[in-house]
Amino acid sequence: MNVKLFRRDESSTIDESVDPSVSDSEQAAATASTTPGKGRPTPKRREAEGKRRGPIAPAPLTAKEARARRKAVKGTKQDRKAAAADRRAAVQDRRARMLAGEDKYLLPRDQGPVRAYVRDLVDARRNLVGLFMPMALVLILSMFVAPGLQTIVTLAMLVMMVFMIIEGFVLGKIVSNRVIERFPDTTDTGFKLGWYAFVRASQIRKMRAPKPRVGPGDAV
User: Fold this and answer.
1) How many angstroms from the chain centroid is the CA of residue 152?
2) What is the DSSP track for 117-179?
3) So what's the pLDDT on residue 32?
4) Is Transmembrane helix among this UniProt entry's keywords (predicted)?
5) In the prediction, which pLDDT does 9 show?
6) Cα(206)–Cα(191) distance, rounded to whole angstroms?
7) How far apart, in whole angstroms, are the C-alpha atoms of residue 93 and residue 95?
8) How many CA atoms lie within 13 A of 183 on its CB side?
9) Is the pTM of this model over 0.85?
10) Per-residue pLDDT at 7
11) How far apart are CA 220 and CA 218, in angstroms?
């Protein structure tokens, strides 16, 4: 007689992998945490947006294909002309506002009420230093026309440079004192401000930028 030992009823078999002391909700959470694919990090926003935009177009294989892509990106010839005209108009408008003295469009060195006041002080004076460039040009041309005048021209230019240094020093002192009187709380004084006034005074009046707001001899 064949006797089967240690036989269990299939209906009474209990899954040993399930702990009866753990609740159903905890078992579901543990199962979800071990689900394949959940262990990877959450994709970044840039990567997600890149996937939504689709794959990147392959690089052009020929020069003709590259030119075609550039034309497609730039648009038609009329569009490019219109864009170029808009850029030129914007540049001209910005330059006009800068020459008019609008503080927003000025270079950093020209911005602020102190620098505007210094420009007015310089523009209201008749400065000898402003004649240096045209006089130097005349002297140099005369030296080429008459080489025998080289010694005289060199001496004249040295004398002009001495006068420039003296006038620049006097102009710097005048500008600094006037600025301190008008703006007692400013720190923009001394050599830096005097040099700014000297550079503007050495320029030809019509070539100064921003353009002068006052005429020679006007009260500032």
Assistant:
1) 48
2) HHHHHHHTS--GGGGHHHHHHHHHHHHHH-GGGHHHHHHHHHHHHHHHHHHHHHHHHHHHHHH
3) 45
4) yes
5) 47
6) 26
7) 5
8) 14
9) no
10) 47
11) 6
pLDDT of residue 10: 44
pLDDT attached to residue 29: 47
The answer to whether the beta carbons of residues 110 and 196 sit under 8 Å apart is no
Residue 38: CB partners within 8 Å, gap ≥ 6? 32
Q: Which residues of the chain have pLDDT under 50?
A: 1-22, 25-26, 28-38
pLDDT score recorded for residue 86: 87
Two structure tokens written together for 218: 């006007």
* CA 109 to the chain's CA centroid: 15
The residue type at 16: E
Phi, psi (5° rounding) for residue 55? -70, 155
Sign of CA dihedral 71, 72, 74, 78: positive
Q: What is the CA angle 104-110-114, rounded to 5?
A: 100
pLDDT at residue 170, as a whole number: 92
Q: How many residues are present in the chain? A: 220
Please state, in angstroms and rounded to a whole number, the distance separating the CA atoms of residues 122 and 193. 12
* Domain assignments of the chain as residue spans, ordered by start: 69-100, 110-202
Give the span between the Cα atoms of 182 and 105, in whole angstroms. Answer: 24
